[in-house]
Amino acid sequence: MALCEVLNSFLFEYDTPRIVLIRSRKVGLVNRGCSSAFSWVFLWEKGYQETDSVVSSVTTKVKGVTLTNTSTLGARIWDVADYVIPPQGENTVFVMTNVILTLNQSQGHCPELPDDQTVCKVKSDCVPGYVSTHSSGIQTGECVPYNSSINTCQVLAWCPVEDDSHIPKPAFLREAENFTLLVKNNIWYRKFNFSKRNILPTINSTYLKNCIYDAQTDPFCPIFRLGKIVEAAGQDFQEMAVEGGVMALQINWDCNLDRAASHCVPKYSFRRLDNKDSAHTVSPGYNFRFAKYYRNRDGSESRTLIKAYGIRFDIIVFGKAGKFDVIPTMINIGSGLALFGVATVLCDIVVLYCMKKKYYYREKKYKYVEDHELGVGETYGTNS
Ligand SMILES: *[C@@H]1O[C@H](CO)[C@@H](O)[C@H](O)[C@H]1NC(C)=O
């Protein structure tokens, strides 16, 4: 009866006269707790509804043009085909905001970037065939001038090698803040055969041409200014544009299909997915490299190496729809009733078997009916 003792000490450490009150209050509390839990589950969590989770498809389109003017490139226009990489993706779109271009690379011999492994004074500092994960190429064993003051080991590589030690700041394509992203999202709730898209039936084409999403004034406009997405997540666009990052554009389609379909509308929210931790700034942001290849007149191959920094927008669609259905209603009422039953039984067990005054309660709970012993030979009624 160790369990009973524990229960006893927790619940009923009281003197005899008070126990009656306490007992009824405790039992009452448990019962009330059960019933309110049940009604909460049933009404708040819509226990009377069948639910389904969303199936969705997303397509995106970015718009915007910007002009840059640098000494190496001259005046240059950047349009969608230049800065959206790859041109189309699945639930995600990458917009290049900063770039390190290395023009006219070709295969050959050139000095490696200087760092503590590659700086050399004499030929014997360099090991032919040496290559590390940070190398631009394979060392030839020569020590050659990198610039007027430093010598580095020579490598066989795409030359000249990329120098990415200085990231352009402010970002090269800082105008990307004013680019727009159109998100088209179709959703489907299979169980209810309900489908809808985020360009609502109330939106006409003139509105769609001119609107920009705003949580207050235009909450259903599917066109987002990139700067606003980042701002809404509490980040600074120009800061994020320098080294890149990952943003989530969340579309929530929680719908109560017991109401009219026009009440089922998307809710947009934004957050930054790559944690920007100001105390720990090792390897921040998001970047990758790719190249464009050319064949020269003389048949030799050259390429432009592009190290692209930018913001990846992941479009995350989630949602749950509910609609009245008899079966979950019955199941939930059933389990609710069972909960009541279990509560009563548990309370009774504690009171009748564990408490010090259990005999007293047993007596009170069950009214014992005294049997009138039937005498031998006595019968009920009369024989006929
Ligand atoms: C974006 O557009 C606004 C309004 O047209 C302009 O004031 C702002 O300078 C632009 N942003 C950048 C980075 O040029």
CATH topology of the largest domain: atp-gated p2x4 ion channel fold
The total of helices stands at 8
How many whole angstroms does the radius of gyration measure? Answer: 37 Å
Number of domains: 2
Determine the N-to-C terminus distance. 56 Å
CATH class of the largest domain: Mainly Beta
Query: What percentage of the residues does DSSP assign to strands (E)?
Result: 25-35%
CATH superfamily of the largest domain: atp-gated p2x4 ion channel domain
Report on this structure.
The protein is an alpha+beta fold. The protein has two domains: 3-48 and 325-374, no CATH class; 55-112 and 161-323, atp-gated p2x4 ion channel domain (atp-gated p2x4 ion channel fold), CATH 2.60.490.10. The chain has eight helices and 16 strands. The protein has helices at 2-11, 16-44, 80-83, 205-210, 226-232, 237-243, 326-354, 358-365; strands at residues 49-53, 55-63, 66-70, 74-78, 92-111, 138-145, 151-159, 180-189, 194-197, 223-225, 245-252, 255-256, 267-272, 287-295, 301-318, 320-324. Strands 5, 6, 7, 11, 13, 14 and 15 form a seven-stranded mixed beta sheet that branches. Helix 7 crosses helix 8. It is elongated. The chain starts with a helix and ends in a 19-residue tail after the last helix. Residues 13-23 have low confidence and may be disordered. The structure holds 2-acetamido-2-deoxy-beta-D-glucopyranose. Residues 174-175, 177-178 line the site of 2-acetamido-2-deoxy-beta-D-glucopyranose.
